[in-house]
Every structure is written in C-alpha cells, then in structure tokens.
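Figure S4 source data
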Amino acid sequence: MQNTDLNKDIQFFANCGPIRVWSLVITILGDLCQKPEDFITGRALGHLVARLGVNNQALRVALHRLRRDGWIRTERDGRSSNYYLSNQGQTMVVSVRNRIYQSNPPKKIPIYLIVAPPSVSATDFANTLPESACNLSTRIALFSGDTTLPPNYLQIPLEANPVPDWITEIIAPSALQSEFCILQKAIRTVLSEQVPTTIVDRTILRLIILHHWRRLILRQSLLADILLPDQWPGAMARRQVSVALTRYDRPDLLALNACLDDRT
C-alpha cells in the first residue's frame, strides 16, 4: 500500500523539471552504491523509480542505454538481476561527487580574466581552458585556480566584487537561478513535514531531492559559488539540500534491498 503522505511530498517536486529516467538511475546508483561491489537489485530499483512515476518500459529502455554506454553492468541472480556501476560509471560518478555533496564550497580561490590574441581560433581557445573556466566571449574567459596558459595570453587577477550583472547572467543564468528557487521552495516545504518512518520512504525523498539538485548543480558554472554572494539562489538551495540529505540519510543498502525485495 502506498503512503499517501509520501505521494503528497513527491508532488511538491512536480515543478522542478522533467525526470530523465537514465539520469535518475545514475542518481540512484551513484548515491546508494558507494563502493564498486555495491549493487541494487532489479526489484528494488523498479520499486524506487515506480514511486517517482517511472514505468517498467521506461526503466528497461534506460537500463539498456546505460549498459550500452558503459555506465552500468548487470549480474543475474536467479530470475532477477542486480545492477552495479561499471568501472567507467564509478569514475564518472566520483569525478562529480564533490560538486554534488559539498555543503560549503571554497570561496577564497583566485579568479583570473584571460584574453587570447586575435590569431587564436575560438576552438583552440576553448581547448586550452581548464574545467573551471567560463567563456565571456570568443577569446575572453574567467577561470579559477592555477593553470598553465600559453605565454602570449593576457592573464589578469579579477578583483571586481560584486561582479557586473552581465557576468552574473553568464555564470548563473536567470533561468537556472529560477530553477534553484523552485527546488529550494519544494525542499523547504517537505522539511516542514514529519520525517517518514520507513527506510523506503526516507530514501525516496532523499533521491528525488538529490536528483533535482544533481541535475542543476552539474549545469552550474564552477565559478558561481566563488564569485556570487552567499544569498544567491544556488547557494541557498545548496544549504537546503545539505539539511535534507542529513535528515533523509543514506540508507544501509543491504537493508534497503531486503526491504524492497520483500515487497514484491
């Protein structure tokens, strides 16, 4: 029997954006399977995504895509299957784990404005930029930290605080900020409710919050939390997410699998 209170809580996130099933599966495995040997059973995975509105056919298509693209691997267990992150999947998940779960990103990191000479093509310029960089125009960018650039590039420390509105719009577009606000409101509403009593219901709330946060934070420039004030919507959403992930803590995976397998 489904928990109607949980259904109501899930509905609070209806305006947070569409759920791509393959991405939701990565959120689930990335959060619950912390070690290479960790897995989630097929029955448990099916139950979790079903509570978030995903049917069996959509899940099968997503799993096929993830296997094809090397994200997951499958092991048969009698008539069922167990799902693991592949080595590639583990590598990809770990590479962004800090961005997703970090509650207090560092602020005191030097920012530089870099300008390439006119002889450098836009493609070559983009290829020289570190991951933390953000293009401002064809041959002008901002980046954080230390990196080695060609000697003919102009590199200037950025001291403007606050940054101009047009830079804010590039590193944190208004549409993205609006989505952070919607997510923050949904989380705040759910946090005002009683904590679910079952491991399954707490896990489902954890996963839907984490999935929408992951979807947004991986679209956000790495520079936003360094350059923008503590009250910008992304930073405020991060604080709400941190509270939520503490409240709906990561479950014991063996216990969760056993609980969900017993339901089917």
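Figure S5 source data
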Amino acid sequence: MNNEVLLTRPSWIEIDLKAVQFNAKSILKHTDAQRLIAVVKANAYGHGAIKVAQALYDIGVRDFAVATIAEGIELRSALYYENVKIILLGVQDVNQIHEIIKYRLSPAVESVDWLDQALHGMNDSEILNVEIAVDTGMGRMGAHSKQALQDVYDKVKESSLLQLTGVFTHFATADDNNQSYYMKQLKLFEEWVESADIPKKYWHLANSGSSLWHYREINTQTIRVGSVLYGFNPGAPLLKMPIKLHSVLTLKSKIGAVHKLQTGESVSYGATYTAQEPQWVATLPIGYADGYLRRMAGMKVLIDGQIATVVGRITMDQLVIAMDRYHPIDTEVTLIGKSGNKEISIEEFSSYARTIPHEIVTSLSSRLPRVYIK
C-alpha cells in the first residue's frame, strides 16, 4: 500500500485489479464470448478508468466503452495502441467531430442527420468509425424503427469516409424480472438488424444483466459489460448471481479522534444521537462530500472484524461511530469490504442507502485516494 498517498487523506479506496481481471475472465467463460467490450465510463464506475483498462488490456481486452468525448480522450492517452478501440456511448456533439476522429473514438450514431452533419465537417482524408445505436425500448437514443436503422446503415455503406465498427442496443430490464419486455427488445433488435443485413460480427447487445442471466437466448460472440467487471450484482436484490465474482472495491478510513460520551451527551448537527449510558465514540475523516451519503446514519462499519455503528448526522467531512470498547486513534475502519470474517458488501451498502450499487461507486468522490492492489 502506498502510505504516501494515505498520509494526504486517512480515508481511501482500495481497488483490487486482479479481481477485475478475474471477473472479466469469469464472464467470458460464462457466456462463451470471444470478445469483451469493457465499459469504463464514469471513471470505470469510480474505480479508475486508466488503471482498470490497463489491467484488462494485460489479459487481452482490446475494446472499451466510455460515455463522453473527454473520457475517450483521457483513455486514449493511456491506451494509444492501434489495436485498441474506444466506443462513445450516448449522444455526442457533432461539432466535436475532429476531436472524435483525432483520438480514434467510435461514436454511437442514431440518425442520417447526425452523419450528414459529421460528413459536412470532415475533410476527405478523415475516416470516422461509427457504432449504430438501435433503440428497441430503452427510449433514450438510437434508430427507432426498422426503416430508420436501414437508412443509417445505407448511409454508412455509401460513404467512403464512414467505417462501421458495431451495432448495438441496450436492454432496459435484463437485470430484473420483466422478461416479457426483455424478449420484446431482443426480438426487435434481431428483426431489424437481420432485415438490414448487418453481419453478426458487428453485433453487441449483451450487457451485464443479459450476459449473466440471458446468455443462452442471445448472441454472445461479443459482450459489453460494466458492473460485472467491478464485482457486484446488477440485479440485486431481485436476482441471484449465477457465477462467483470477486469484490473489487474496499472503502476504508482511520479513527481521527476518540472520546467517551457521558450519559445525556449528544453528537453532530441536530443532536440526533444522545448517549443513554457512557459510550465510546470515534470520529472518521469522511463524509458526504466524499460520497458517504448523509442518509447512511445507522449503517454499520467494521473494526478488527467487529461491528460498530454510524451515529448522529453525517456531515460534509466527518462522521461519528459508536463502539463497544475503546479503539485508539489511527485504527483502521472498513466501511465497504471485508474485515476479519465479516463483510459489508456494496449490495448491502446500497440497499441501506435505498439505491443501487452503480450510484454508490460512482458517487465516491475524487478526494478519496485510490490505492491499487495488483
């Protein structure tokens, strides 16, 4: 562990890169896929896009997906190899077409109009790689009908400046129990893409949910996954994991102050917690500005494999825990992850927060140092 990093902030995140690699290999084996597109948008779901992508590159992954042009440029600066493809998911500003081409990014496109504007701004020496997005029911972006898809594909084929690199859709209910809606989307994608005669080598429609629970129903030659790489269940709590994944992220802090509350004494804003008897409490230098949400009061933490509890209101930079005995300053505390034979999983943490793991990990702020374990 890099103690110089920890000295700047005694609250930090540990990222297990071998766990990322294990999870990638596991989902490839589970689906019998030949190719994996690793979704590393939002700084690899808060885990660190460059470090995660480099770890995946080391085991043979050559395809990555981000959300924005800025994310794509940052990733390309680290993965400059010719054999690495970076897909831009979502809507992109066509006025940035030269930046997209310069950094060899492959934008998702949905319409002939967008392509016409892009071509108008390009010169004859430029080639734009495109991913055709198909909206089969997510309702956000993509060709919205069989004819719209055909028109976009025809436009790509007729221009020498455009190169098709993929065609995809995104499932709205692959990670819950709404199977009828999932099958409706799948049927539409297959019908529209086959009608347009787009070769299967370009297809990628298996996100984490469909790769985990629907891999027998769809084409999984190429899978496009995010949450699976980071070791959490995208279908929690409705669906159980069909494969074993390794936890990637651990959130830790250290006790910065400790004292004994006397009966009747309170802590933090609003005096919402009052000791009913003498009680050891400790302050941790982490709060909602770090992504430890204000509503997490009452959540457990782990000290030496034993449970302590967050009490009082969580503030911007600090929180307080109640302990069953004295622990000295600098004692390590686990807020997400394993300690001894106990674990606070990201699924348990997000359930307590009344949200999903995706929101938790992407909310952990940049002022929490990331420490990478290889």
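The chain has a mean pLDDT of 95. The chain has two domains: 17-230, 249-344.
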